Amino acid sequence: MKSLSILLIDDDEIERIKFKKVSQKTEFISTFFEAKNGENAITLLKNKPYSFDLIITDLHMPIMNGFELLEKLKKNKKFKNIPVVVMSSSTNHKDLKKCFKLGVSGYFTKSLQSSEYISNVVSLLNYWQKSELVNF
Amino acid sequence: METPNLSFIKEIAGDDEIFQKRILEIIKKEFTEEVSLFKTNFSLKKYEDAANDVHKIKHKISLLALEQGSKKASEFEKELKEGIITLHPTFLEILNKIHVYLSN
Fold it and tell me: Which residue of B has its CA nearest to A110?
């Protein structure tokens, strides 16, 4: 079975570790590459010989935030077709609207409750894995 | 009244004790730094910066299974963005609970 190659972007190390751990609760294997901010992610994207299946990014990060990253990805021919899902604790409607305007494929709120968080991450990854298999 | 505990971390970690330990180590290290930064920004009335600090701290509050505490932290974060500080004492109480828990 093909594994998903995911670029996970979050300045918070615990959030990255947590997400990867929960990903092990899915029925699929995901391979993660990590970045601490948008700038770090762009460098990784430019240096990687093959494309990612999915980018999951936080919004509020230092140096280059999620919005700036989305704008850069959208303007880049090579990266603009990689699906991006935003993972944020922001429930601000303006943020949500701005993200979809910038072409994100999904937006998921980091729940502060464990069972909800786990269920959200598992559903998200299962959904993308299945979509990827359909396209494969 | 809720108290900090490891139920959230255990639910994520399952039987993986190394993972549990690693998360706790990071929490212990970062919590002190983030709280100190928050207190500095708050005392300087840099409320926008203090809101960003609360944003980071609230994830640790939720990881220690303080559901009500993390809700209060979210409310306080919103307050700070508008320059309102009524939830400051409540937030300090939550921080103190965590500090005591992590010190034991």
Answer: B59
A89, B23: Cβ pair inside 8 Å?
no
Q: Per-residue pLDDT averaged across B29-38, rounded? A: 96
> Nearest CA to CA, how far is B49 from chain A (Å)?
12
Q: Which residues of B touch A121 (CB under 8 A)?
A: none
ipTM above 0.90 for this complex? no
Contact between A57 and A9 under an 8 Å Cβ cutoff? The reply is yes
Domain ranges within chain B, ordered by starting residue? 7-103
pLDDT, averaged across chain B: 94
The shortest CB-CB distance from A15 to any of B27, B52, B59 is to B59
* Per-residue pLDDT tens over the stretch A42-98: 999 998 877 899 999 999 899 999 999 999 999 999 899 999 999 988 778 888 899
Q: What is the pTM of this model?
A: 0.88
Residue B27 to residue A14, Cβ atoms within 8 A: yes
Gap from A10 CA to chain B (nearest CA, Å): 12
Q: Per residue, what are the HEC states of chain A? A: CCCEEEEEECCCHHHHHHHHHHHCCCCCCEEEEEECCHHHHHHHHHHCCCCCCEEEECCCCCCCCHHHHHHHHHHCCCCCCCCEEEEECCCCHHHHHHHHHCCCCEEEECCCCHHHHHHHHHHHHHHHHHHHHHHC
The yes/no answer on whether domain A4-135 falls in CATH 3.40.50.2300 is: yes
